[in-house]
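W.,

You were right to be curious about this one. When I first looked at the sequence I had no strong expectations either way, so I just let the prediction run and decided to look at it fresh. Below is the sequence, 150 residues in total, followed by the output.
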Amino acid sequence: MNNQDLRPMFSYSFVPIFLLMMGIGILLYLLRKKKEKKPAPVVVKPTTKNLFEIKNRYTAQINLLEQNFQNQIISKRDAYIELSRLIRNFIFEVTQIKVQNYSLQEIKRVGIPSLSFLVEEYYHPEFAKESSTQINGSIERTRELIEKWK
């Protein structure tokens, strides 16, 4: 064999390998950080007097909503939207958890099953053009949740 037939030894540059490894490391870090669950919100309980006033105020608003629906002042869809707003605001006032803008999945993570149940019940009629659901039952369940809240 002749020296001219031999090729020089192939070598890798460590810079691209290093950058690739750093990129993978950063990506894994960001994915892990994204998956970390947020801590459960701290529930702040109002005083007994305030709770009684809050319950009375929201019960009166639900009664007015029911009356407006029965008198055909508002549509079924608008009534569901208003029910959702009322129960979310009520929960905020009694717990200080800002559920007003939470999605259904975020509400389920809060750990208030009765709220999750009601909001899930409101979802279809709230966003559908027409719904065959009975709003009277939803109004009654919402009123019960407010009255039984401790």
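Here's what jumped out at me. The chain has a mean pLDDT of 82. And, maybe more interesting for your project: The helical segments are 14-35, 48-70, 76-95, 104-110, 113-127, 135-148.

Coffee later to discuss?

I.
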